[in-house]
């Protein structure tokens, strides 16, 4: 089913939010969401993700001076029922004593959409969320994943202009979460609806977002595609929040970064003779046997190993402020206490984006 609505852009302009108790949940915020894109709001607890989403929904209103636009239409003061948004929450918010079909049809009934059309839309939506044949099942007899699919179908039933999802997969167990996430991804792409998705889970953000907005303490820290956020963090906060990051300090010597225990490739912004910092991801660290170490390695002592099933994590003391973390899916094993070496290819050095909090699109 294609969304009947044309995809709409959304613009937040100077949207700040203070609550009556004096909490400043959001600093004045500017944000442009493209028609049909899935934008993920990502950040730690309390950073203002939900408040931003609720302002787009019409469940909160920005402080004076803030404006919310859907396309050309100023919706700043419109309540939720006049905005044409569909919402999905972590806790489903379904009517437990109604059937699946009744839940999905509820909004349509209120809007007095004819029974025939209601039934037809319910069938189409059930098919879309892979719940064919379950229309008469009571909601309290469904699994968590099925409930969340019903909530999604219900949100889409009114053919909203915008779909808003607030931590919709958090209540599901890990395996189910991945399955529903994959379906949701396909669905969002096929519908082409403008969607805003709140999560504190960076894996989810990477998997679902066309772009990700990383938020920190009521402010936008960076906006970018998942690749931009992962490989070119704009600042320390993003670098630390998204995935694990190694950072080591050295001195630029010739075409290498010199550390007490060996060398690494040069960071991109390195200046000869100056101190510089190299940032790299654990999965890009090659762990090698000390007998094979050469001038392009760092030497160290293995202080911890963790077998994680699909990969192994090593913590290696190299005389820097923090141990280097390496993760590899290759089968190879060293014992804690052993001397070891690591190599990092030049292409794996993560660069900081030159300017913070700039829109990249
Ligand atoms: N109704 C309210 N009254 C007062 N303060 C509020 C209210 N709603 C949110 N806050 C505060 O505003 C800040 C941002 O909250 P918000 O719910 O947007 O964060 P969040 O990033 O969604 O966090 P979480 O991931 O924990 O849901 C927090 O400090 C929160 O305590």
What would your notes on this structure say?
The structure is a single chain. This protein has helices at 49-57, 100-110, 115-128, 144-157, 174-191, 202-208, 226-231, 236-241, and strands spanning 10-18, 24-33, 38-42, 67-70, 73-74, 85-89, 162-166, 194-199, 211-216, 219-224, 246-253, 256-259, 262-265, 275-280, 286-289, 298-307, 312-317, 324-328, 339-343. The protein folds into 2 domains: 10-241, P-loop containing nucleotide triphosphate hydrolases (Rossmann fold); 246-347, RNA polymerase II/Efflux pump adaptor protein, barrel-sandwich hybrid domain (OB fold (Dihydrolipoamide Acetyltransferase, E2P), Beta Barrel). By secondary structure, it is an alpha+beta fold. The protein is elongated. The site of adenosine-5'-triphosphate has 13 residues, from helix 1.
Summarize this structure briefly:
This protein has 361 residues and is α+β, with helices and mostly antiparallel strands. It is 24% helix and 30% strand.
Name the descriptors.
alpha+beta; 19 strands; disordered C terminus; binds adenosine-5'-triphosphate; single chain; OB fold (Dihydrolipoamide Acetyltransferase, E2P); 6-stranded mixed β-sheet; 2 domains; 361 residues; 5-stranded antiparallel β-sheet
